[in-house]
Design brief:
Elements (H helix, E strand, L loop, with lengths): L8 H11 L4 E4 L8 E6 L5 E6 L3 H14 L11 E5 L4 E5 L4 E2 L7 H19 L7 H7 L1 H16 L5 H14 L7 E4 L8 E4 L4 E4 L6 E4 L5 H5 L6 H11 L5 H24 L3 H16 L4
Antiparallel strand pairs: 1-2, 2-3, 3-5, 4-5, 6-8, 7-10, 8-9
């Protein structure tokens, strides 16, 4: 929870107009400073969420996704956008059944089932975007943009990385520039177990939080899972890709390794700066595996 525990009168009034009823609001924000989310309960028992985007870019990305691409996931495969307000950067969303997979204790078989369903939904999302005109150009330049961002992360990380680690990250970032064209897609951009909902009773998955969605290389949607969930669970990687409908190509796997190095440095900047030991540990573990040559 953040300090944004109270919904302002203006936002409550806006939500009430959009829902044709006055809801009871409960803070449902993530434990980070830029997260502002409220769970809204209506008198008839129907639930919604009101989310304030951290900035205009994320607002535009999420509203675009929920209007143009997320509907391809089906009625319960993603939130539905009830209303939006550019003035407040606010989105009024339907509640998706289930709980974040990260919060659940499941058997290995059910975890694999959830990842298989998640992969199938990602395949539908990846195919939903119109890759024409400037959108294709954006997707084609995504890996180049990632490579260019590596140096900035390294500068901020400073002595949190050794000289050999810095060299490895630079070498891997440079390799992104030399890869052949890779499959392009409209990606979720933050695909991992915090944003993967699982409805145990129906054995049904859904993706939430589309504020980082964009046109990019398809493989970029697998970085977070590869650096966290899949580290000790190759069965979950296999299940997700089975649901996705294909394995990663050799070139995509190479790109995944390069992108993991950049993610590791980003974690080693963000984690200590925001007192987040889990993010810091993810970055350190990824970097250690890359240095040992065991990242796959």
């Amino acid at each position: 929870m953040t300090n944004s525990t109270t919904l302002s009168p203006a936002l409550l009034a806006w939500a009430s107009r959009g829902l044709d009823a006055r809801p009871v609001a409960r803070d449902a924000s993530h434990d980070r400073s830029n997260s502002r989310v409220w769970h809204l309960s209506l008198p008839n028992g129907v639930d919604f969420y009101l989310k304030i985007a951290p900035n205009p870019v994320m607002y535009e990305r999420e509203t675009f996704a929920l209007r143009a691409t997320a509907p391809a996931l089906g009625y319960e495969g993603a939130p539905q956008l009830r209303d939006s307000s550019p003035e407040h950067l606010a989105l009024l969303l339907t509640a998706v059944p289930g709980r974040p997979l990260k919060q659940l204790k499941l058997s290995p078989a059910e975890e694999a089932r959830a990842h298989r369903h998640a992969g199938a939904l990602l395949a539908r999302l990846h195919a939903a975007g119109d890759l024409s005109g400037p959108r294709r150009a954006e997707a084609e330049q995504a890996l180049q943009a990632a490579a260019e961002g590596a140096e900035g992360h390294l500068a901020k990380a400073g002595d949190r990385l050794t000289t050999p680690e810095q060299k490895l990250v630079r070498d891997l970032a440079e390799q992104l520039r030399t890869l052949p064209p890779l499959p392009l897609a409209y990606i979720h951009g933050d695909a991992w177990e915090r944003n993967l909902m699982w409805w145990t009773a129906r054995q049904q998955a859904a993706w939430i939080d589309f504020e980082r969605s964009r046109f990019a290389a398809a493989v970029q949607d697998f970085v977070l899972m590869a650096c966290a969930t899949w580290t000790d669970r190759p069965d979950l990687r296999a299940a997700c890709l089975q649901g996705y409908g294909r394995s990663l190509t050799v070139e995509e796997q190479r790109a995944l390794t390069c992108l993991a190095a950049i993610d590791a440095v980003s974690c080693l900047v963000w984690g200590p700066d925001h007192d987040d030991p889990q993010v810091t540990a993810r970055g350190r573990r990824t970097l250690d595996r890359l240095m040992a040559g065991v990242f796959a």
